[in-house]
Amino acid sequence: MTGPSALFVPDVRIAADQAAFSELSAAFFIASIEKLKAPLVVLPTGNTPLGMYDVLATQYAGRRDLWDNMRFLALDEYAGLARNDSRLFSGWLCRVFLDRVGIPAANRTFFQSDAANRAQEIVRMETFLNDNGPVDLAVLGLGANGHLGMNEPGSPFDGSTRLITLTPETIKSGAAYWGSEAAVPREAYSLGLGGLLKAKEIMLLVNGAAKAGILAETLNGAVGPAIPATCLRTRGGVRVIADRDAAGKLTP
Ligand code: PGA
Fold first, then answer.
1. Close Cβ partners of 46 (under 8 Å, ≥ 6 residues apart)
2. Rg of the chain over CA atoms, in angstroms?
3. Digit-coded pLDDT (tens) for 210-240
4. 169 is catalytic
5. pLDDT by residue (tens digit) across 58-100?
6. Per residue in 118-159, pLDDT tens?
7. Residue identifier of the C-alpha nearest atom 9 of ligand 1
8. pLDDT surpassing 70 at residue 19
């Protein structure tokens, strides 16, 4: 496969420590959405964005102008879990952010993990994106294997919303959250890279030394589906916020 001809260099910001990482991420988040009337925003789960959510929910809690109008669209979700399952990404995001700042229920669009008809669920979410998109701001985490959302290695850069079989590496990462690999669902819904790449702005949040290698590959390695996050170099308007540990293998 030949790579895309024009590549872009993301704007990389390096924070000195976890507190600075959270503050910087929150500041860019606010700057990105505050100029918009009803921004459509995609947000990640995981430990990486927790500090940003804390800053938003504490320092910016009073910004009703932001939270009453922001429209949240889910990035991904495990497939096949019951509505009250504690592993649901939807529940996680409500607890750590959406409920805390009071995003109106009508402005929250989630995958239905327990959808009986999975094909229909995929169409429902892709249709929502097509009808309401493009996304104004996509905030993304970086998987240990370079995934974005649940777009695992091999995911096409023009892919649409779909069901994805999780790789052993992602199942291993998930075990850290749910106690064991057996507790990690094997499949997940995810917005596709194609839809994400149409977002007006993209913020990639990366922290911790364990991500230093994959961040260096994302920014400097070969562009292609083997490392899905390299798709971010096929367009402009991408900001990477890393802490010093995650930036440890970037050449200055
Ligand atoms: P993490 O997940 O925040 O748990 O490292 C990142 C991701 O897989 O997107």
1. 141
2. 17
3. 999 999 999 999 999 999 999 999 999 999 9
4. no
5. 999 999 999 999 999 999 999 999 999 999 999 999 999 999 9
6. 999 999 999 999 999 999 999 999 999 999 999 999 999 999
7. 141
8. yes
> Is 158 annotated as catalytic?
no
In the residue annotation, 152 being an active-site residue is answered as yes
Around ligand 1, the residues with Cβ closer than 6 Å are 44, 46-48, 141-143, 173
| 240 Cα distance to chain centroid | 12
Long-range contact list for 97-104, CB < 8 A, 24+ apart?
A: 97/43, 97/53, 97/56, 97/57, 98/72, 100/53, 100/57, 100/61, 101/56, 101/57, 101/60, 101/61, 101/66, 101/67, 102/64, 102/67, 102/68, 103/67, 103/70, 103/72, 104/68
- pTM score over 0.90: yes
Mutational pocket test of ligand 1: of 42, 145, 173, the residue with most ligand atoms within 8 Å of the beta carbon: 173
Q: Which two tokens stand for residue 79?
A: 């497939």
SS3 for 240? strand
**Atom 4 (ligand 1) nearest CA:** 46
Q: Which atom of ligand 1 is found nearest the CA of 143?
A: 8
Give me ligand 1 centre to Cα 46, in Å: 5
